[in-house]
Amino acid sequence: MSSALTDLFPHPIVQAPMAGGVSVPTLAAAVSEAGGLGFLAAGYKTADGLYQEIKQLRSLTARPFGVNLFMPQPEYADPAAVDVYAHQLAGEAAWYETELGDPECGRDDGYEAKLAVLLDNPVPVVSFHFGVPSPDLLDSLRRAGTFTLVTATTAEEAFAVEQAGADAVIAQGVEAGGHQGTHRDIPETDGSGIGLLSLIAQVRETVGIPIVAAGGIMRGGQIAGVLAAGASAAQLGTAFLATPESGASAVHKQALTNPLYVRTELTRAFSGRPARGLVNRFLREHGPYAPAAYPEIHHLTAPLRKAAAKAGDAQGMALWAGQGHRMARELPAGQLVEVLVAELAAAWTALSQGGAR
Ligand SMILES: Cc1cc2nc3c(=O)[nH]c(=O)nc-3n(C[C@H](O)[C@H](O)[C@H](O)COP(=O)(O)O)c2cc1C
């Protein structure tokens, strides 16, 4: 723990930003209060919604926290492919007694307005997903006193992150729950994601900036593993999704450890960009045909996901989860941080004595 990032918080544990109402202020506050780094997710929120969440979080904790932004995506969708997918989903809309969403209802997720919020009211840490912001922007954030992080899924992407001037890189392995933060969505590379330990080693030999490791981490022993491999901290999503403070639905939380869900898969079925979720009916039936079209498919399926959630139907929801989902523990977030820290200490002791066995 020697980087400026981990000087901000005592334990090398970052709670992943989770858009879609999961990483709410109460979750982020509990993690930051316990000595980890809590995160808010600006994705799918309005600028004012983000501002209000930051205000609420500040009222709950004076400790450092982060805010995550999705980078706007270039237009790359084939409208005809989106139409074909919409046709395929017509039966789902009839089943859930709703309409499909408008795929063209917004491309940039209010990015500029949210940036303005973060420049006017600087926060301790900002991270970016789905691409690299300009050097100028990263510099403006630094001058505002904000530490910047950008996700990378390959050593080449990590190099681009360092070149742009970010303070640290999030190395996201293929095990990770939710969206892969690949900088450009290239369908030809589907399924070629890199496992976390290998990725950390590759990134470590490519860049000099600190690394935050993400993907499939559920136990303190795994945190010890990524630190030993060259990371400065670990970012955990699925582990915190299961906590009582997380805003995920009860159905989503229960599914994580339900033996009905035996595996996860990367899919474009719900959003048009590869994201890892529990394999359920919707993913199985539509994943193989879903086109590369983000955020069009996200908007198209929004009413279906909402209707499925309202009906408590896990088979129609986007059950984002990393490969470690079965190891999720229903502990309060602050207690989870404490348990992870204890497991990490035990793993270090075991390592110093020549390994666990
Ligand atoms: C429900 C969910 C939502 C997510 N939303 C975001 C997000 O808004 N921004 C982001 O950078 N990463 C997001 N991620 C990815 C996490 O940052 C992180 O890479 C991932 O959770 C790590 O893998 P794990 O879930 O196995 O711990 C999300 C992950 C999950 C599970």
Order of helices and strands: HEHEHEHHHEHEHEEHEHEHHEEHHH
Percent of sequence in beta strands: 5-15%
Largest sheet: 8 strands, parallel
Strand order across the largest sheet: 1-9-8-6-5-4-3-2
Overall spatial form = globular
Present as ligands are: flavin mononucleotide
How many strand elements? 11
The helix-and-strand class reads alpha/beta
The tally of helices reads: 15
Distance between the termini: 26 Å
Low confidence ranges: none
Rg (CA only):
19 Å
Can you give the mean pLDDT?
Answer: 96
Fraction of helical residues: 40-55%
| Multimeric status of the protein | single chain
What features would you describe in this structure?
The protein is built from 15 helices and 11 strands. It has 357 residues and is of the alpha/beta class. Helix 2 packs parallel to helix 3, helix 8 crosses helix 9 (196-204) and helix 10 packs across helix 15. Helix 7 (135-143) links the parallel strand 4 and strand 5. The strands form 2 sheets. It has an 8-stranded parallel beta sheet with strand order 1-9-8-6-5-4-3-2. A 3-stranded antiparallel beta sheet has the order 7-11-10, with no helix packed on it. The mean pLDDT is 96.
Topology of helices and strands:
Elements: H1 4-7, E1 13-15, H2 25-33, E2 38-41, H3 47-60, E3 65-70, H4 79-88, H5 90-95, H6 111-120, E4 125-129, H7 135-143, E5 147-152, H8 155-164, E6 168-172, E7 178-179, H9 196-204, E8 211-214, H10 220-229, E9 233-236, H11 238-241, H12 250-257, E10 264-267, E11 275-278, H13 281-286, H14 296-310, H15 333-352
Parallel strand pairs: 1-9, 2-3, 3-4, 4-5, 5-6, 6-8, 8-9
Antiparallel strand pairs: 7-11, 10-11
Helix pairs in contact: 2-3, 3-6, 8-9, 10-15
The protein binds flavin mononucleotide.
